[in-house]
Amino acid sequence: MSDTHRYGRILLKLSGEALAGDNATGISPEELSFICTEISDIHNAGVAVGIVVGGGNIFRGVAGEDQGVRRTTGDTVGMLSTMINSFMIQDCLERRGVPAVVLSAVQADKIAELFTVQRAESYLSQNTVVIIGGGTGNPFFTTDSAAALRCAELGCDALFKATKVDGIYDKDPVRFPDAQKIPELTHQEALEKNLQVMDVSAFSICRDNSIPILVFKMMEKRNLLRAVTGESIGSLVRKGV
């Protein structure tokens, strides 16, 4: 990897909604292609990449409760939704000549290998993008928590949280034109401010393991490559002094 890269191994957290694009649900071929091109760029630059993707474009466990679905059932369906998204990303990357593998946090012998730290490490050492589906494998945990957990387990340099806006704001910038961007803050400050960009468990895991979190806008050309080189984009959540 070039010395110009600040981060040599990252865990990229993608939302399922990012794959849907302007649609409410499903997978947009254009959005999927854009995201995979961005990932290909940093892979080709020598960055080791792990990916955790949500499943909200297909089904959200929490939303299922409003339809009378038990939370455990809804979360199980949500975990399966992340598997669908994971396979679509894998296929898209491989069509670009990027080796990629899907590891599953839930038993799915016929379609994916079970996630273990040793297995993921082995693939990363072979320059293979590792896509981890199935969340944590347990209900009541978000894919943000899954991303933070995998980031810690795999010794990644940072957790990259891809969003639709260019960082963390003091309030929703879509709803409030006067929202102020917060370029940098500590994990503890993020927890105390109750920022909604990630859940409390994810922030806590990163704080306890001194993992920086970069929150940035994914759908802007070469933003991901700029981020791994350490350019000042998005918002950085870092360890306190």
TrEMBL record:
GO MF annotations, alphabetized: ATP binding; UMP kinase activity
Catalytic reactions of this protein: UMP + ATP = UDP + ADP
Enzyme class label: transferase
Sequence positions that bind ATP: K13, L14, S15, G16, G56, R60, T163, Y169, D172
Cellular-component GO terms for this entry: cytoplasm
Keyword flag ATP-binding: yes
Domain of life: Bacteria
GO biological process: 'de novo' CTP biosynthetic process; UDP biosynthetic process
Gene3D superfamilies cross-referenced by the UniProt entry: Acetylglutamate kinase-like
Binding site residues for UMP: G55, D75, T136, G137, N138, P139, F140, F141, T142, T143
Protein activity control: Inhibited by UTP.
Enzyme Commission number(s) from the entry: 2.7.4.22
Alphabetized UniProt keyword annotations: ATP-binding, Cytoplasm, Kinase, Nucleotide-binding, Pyrimidine biosynthesis, Transferase
Pathway: Pyrimidine metabolism; CTP biosynthesis via de novo pathway; UDP from UMP (UMPK route): step 1/1
Predominant place of localization: cytoplasm
Aspartate/glutamate/uridylate kinase domain: residues covered: 9-216
Subunit annotation: Homohexamer.
Function: Catalyzes the reversible phosphorylation of UMP to UDP.
Record family assignment: Belongs to the UMP kinase family.
Protein name: Uridylate kinase
